TrEMBL record:
Residues 8-130 form the Histidine kinase/HSP90-like ATPase domain. This is ATP-binding protein. Transmembrane segments: none annotated. It is an enzyme of class 2 (transferase). Its EC number is 2.7.13.3.
């Protein structure tokens, strides 16, 4: 089981790099060519969401993207260090930010069949996976 890990500061310009790396590693892991656009889009949405959470919460931590090759699955984890998502009245007043967050999660769940979203005291985690073909592609 091979793992590639990216860590980047919460800036929108780093999202594109994460998308490109995720697609390249997915291709090498054996994810079907027809699914690579979904991988790219899902990683972009997850990273953009993490960047937004960091910027709204003025968090200083990094965003981590782990690309994990398993025997029959390709797993991507996008973790933020933005802390727990508040459910206070002041957060509810920021309706458009909440709507953007919900829309991003809806896009991810529409693209990825196997997705888990969790949030803890230190931040959130989006775990997504796709099946791989029997023979990984050599790069």
């Amino acid at each position: 089981m091979a793992t590639v890990e990216l860590r980047f500061s919460a800036l929108p310009e780093h999202v594109r790099t994460a998308r490109l790396v995720a697609a390249a590693v997915a291709r090498r892991a054996g994810v079907e060519e027809s699914v690579l656009d979904e991988v790219r889009l899902a990683v972009g949405e997850a990273c953009s969401r993490a960047v937004g959470l960091h910027q709204r919460g003025d968090a200083q931590g990094a965003i981590r993207v782990a690309l994990i090759e398993q025997e029959k699955r390709f797993l991507i984890e996008v973790a933020d260090e933005a802390g727990p998502i508040p459910l206070s009245a002041s957060a509810a007043a920021e309706g458009s930010d909440r709507d953007d967050d919900a829309l991003g999660l809806a896009v991810i769940t529409g693209l990825v069949e196997d997705v888990e979203v969790s949030n803890g005291n230190e931040g959130g985690l989006i775990r997504m996976s796709w099946p791989v073909s029997s023979a990984p592609v050599a790069v």
